[in-house]
Design a protein that fits this description.
The protein is elongated. It folds into two domains: about 1-45; about 65-180. It is about 70% helix and about 0% strand. The longest helix has 24 residues, at about 40-65. By secondary structure, it is mainly α. The protein has helices spanning about 1-15, 20-30, 40-65, 70-85, 85-95, 100-110, 115-120, 125-140, 145, 155-170.
Length: about 180
């Protein structure tokens, strides 16, 4: 089953979720040789598997060193670059909204209560801000010019990305998480 799901994730990335047909699913099932019956529910399971595959990286970033603001910046940067590397899969997740909700919930629940209190945050407020920031981060990866404060093509990519991350951080609640951000 895992091989089938992985093959379907690759189909989504190659063709886009709207273009993945039952024929693609059947070919993925046949190619995996796992005796799985092709249907649309299998496509939903592949989308869930792609979410599950990203969560260990998210958890590692959240448990990493540094201040909360730095870890959230790292996470948003991870999401921007993930969307750049996997645009069709990212579009599929934005379409369903499930990934954004699950990821913002995972991030908020993975943070320490004492750390949140020190930042003046409640978990629910942070989760709402994270849902906006996660959606915007994925969108920024799909269309960097749309959210980048530096739109000049000759500006190095790293500077455009850093400007985008600062703009995304402005979506989060609590002044402590927006230090140095001008809105």
């Amino acid at each position: 089953m895992q091989k089938t799901l992985h093959t379907l994730i690759n189909c989504i990335e190659e063709h886009g979720i709207a273009a993945v047909s039952l024929r693609h699913i059947a070919e993925a099932c046949d190619g995996a040789g796992e005796g799985v019956t092709p249907d649309r529910a299998l496509l939903a399971r592949a989308m869930q598997a792609s979410i599950d595959n990203s969560l260990p990286d998210v958890r590692e970033i959240l448990r990493g060193p540094g201040l909360l603001e730095e870890r959230l910046e790292t996470l948003l940067s991870f999401l921007v670059h993930g969307a750049e590397r996997h645009p069709n899969l990212s579009r599929a997740h934005l379409r369903t909204g499930r990934y954004v909700f699950l990821l913002s919930e995972e991030i908020a629940s993975g943070l320490d209560d004492n750390e949140l209190a020190a930042e003046g945050l409640c978990r629910h407020e942070l989760q709402e801000g994270l849902a906006l920031a996660v959606s915007a981060a994925i969108f920024a990866g799909l269309n960097p010019a749309a959210l980048s404060p530096l739109r000049v093509p000759t500006v190095p990519r790293s500077l455009r990305t850093n400007g985008t991350i600062r703009a995304l951080m402005a979506l989060l609640p609590a002044p402590a998480l927006r230090s140095g951000v001008v809105i």
